[in-house]
Design a protein that fits this description.
6-phosphogluconate dehydrogenase, decarboxylating, alpha/beta, 7-stranded mixed beta sheet, Pgluconate_DH, oxidoreductase, 9 strands, 6PGdom_BS, binds 6-phosphogluconic acid, single chain, two-stranded antiparallel sheet
Length: about 475
Amino acid sequence: TSAQIGVTGLAVMGRNLARNFARNGYTVAVHNRTPARTRALVDEFGGEGEFIAAETAKEFVAALERPRRLVIMVKAGEPTDAVIQEFAPLLEPGDMIIDGGNAHFADTRRRERDLREQGIHFVGMGVSGGEEGALHGPSIMPGGPKESYDSLGPMLEKISAKAKDGSPCVTHVGPDGAGHFVKMVHNGIEYADMQLIGEAYQLLRDVAGYSPAQIAEIFRTWNQGRLDSYLIEITAEVLSHVDEATGKPFVDVVVDQAEQKGTGRWTVQIALDLGVPVSGIAEAVFARSLSGHAALRAASRGLAGPKASPLGEAEAAAFADRVEQALYASKIVSYTQGFHEIDAARAEYDWDIDLGAVSAIWRGGCIIRAAFLDRIRAAYDARADLPSLLSDDTFAQEIAAAQDDWREVLVAATRQGVPTPGFAAALAYYDALRAERLPAALTQGQRDFFGAHTYRRTDRDGSFHTLWGGDRSEVSS
Ligand code: 6PG
C-alpha cells in the first residue's frame, strides 16, 4: 500500500494534522527526524487509521503515491529550509511539498520559485486553530500553484473545519506566498482582537469595578450577541479560572508580560512597506512589547496620573454596555485594516485573492473564528470591490450607532488613566478617514518650507513650491 499524504515533523501540530488525515480515511506516511516520535505516534494513535511509519527520508518518500504530497510541519525559518533540502532531491516533477508552518510569505515565495525550477509544486499553507484545530478541523489557507489545489484541495476540504452552513474552511487563496500572507494577517487580526478584549477587561475591572468572575459573566453574555467568537468564549474561561495554589483569580497570578512569536510583528512590518495603515494591529504588537519592558515599567510606576475610582452598580452596568459598543466598533476597524493589507498585497504581488472567500474560511476552525466573519463575507459578496469594510452600509450603520458610546468609553479611560491604545487607535483611524480636511496639508507646507519638497494645490493641477526664503511667491515645479 502507499500513502496518499505524508507528514514530516511530528511535534504536536504535525502529529495532530497527521491524525486528522488518518481519521478521515487517508493513508498517512509519518516521519520525524528522531524516529522515536514516529513510533510513539503509531503506538498511541495507530488505531485511528492507516499510518505508514517511515524511519528515513528515503522510506518516507517511497511510501507516498504519485504525485507525492509531502506536508512539512517544522519550525519556520532555517529548519524549514533544511527539511526542503533534505527531501527535494528525492522528489520528481509534479510532486508537492506543502509547508504547514507559520512561514514568512517572502520565504515561501523564494522556496516556491526555487522548487518550480525542479518541477516541484511548493504550497505554502497557513493552518490556524492550534492543536485542537489541527486534530478536529483547522482553517486552512493554502497558496502555491493552482494545479496543486486540484489534487490537494479535496483532501484539505475533508480535514478542515466546516462553517455553520457546512462549507469547508479552506480555499486556494492565491499563488506562491498568498496563503502564508493571509495567515500572517489572520494572526495580526488575532493580536488586535486579543488586545481589544484586554482593554475591555481592564476597563470593566478598573472603571466599572467588576471582579474577574463578574467580567467572565459579562463576556459570556456578549458571546451570545454580535461578538460571538472563539476568543470571547475563551476569555470568559480564562477569567473565571481560579488559581489552585492561592485561591486567587488566575489572571491575577500570571506575570503581565505578553510574548509573541512574530507573525503579528510581520503583519505590521509588511504593512509599513505596503503603506497600509494598520494602526490597531500595530498598537496590539506595541502593547505586547511595552508589557515586556519590566524595568522601564518599574521605573515609571511613580509617575503622576489619576487614580481610577470605580463606578456604582447601576452606572457600572451601563458602562459595560458602552464597552461592548466600543469593542465592537474597534473590532470592525481592525478587520478593516487587516483586509486593506490583504487587498494591497493582492495588487503588489499580483495575487488574485478573493476577500469574501478569505472571510468565509475564517468562519470556522481558526483562532479568530466568529459570527462576525459571516457578515464580512456577506459584505464582500454583495460588492467584491468594496473600498473598505467601513464603506459597507451595515458596518457603517453599526459604527454610527456605536460611536457615542465608543467616544464616552475613551473619555472615561482617559480621565481615569486606563490605557486603551487599541480603542483609541481605532477611533482615530475612523475619524481620520471621515475628516473633510487633514493636517497633511500643513505637513506638506512644512516639507516644502524646509526642503522644497513641493505640494499639490486643491484648485489646480501640477506641483508647486513657495519661495519661503525669498518673496514667498509661488513657482510651479
Ligand atoms: C493560529 C495561531 C497560531 C499561534 C500563534 C500564536 O492561528 O492557530 O495564530 O499560529 O498560536 O502563532 O502567536 P504568538 O505566539 O505570536 O502569540
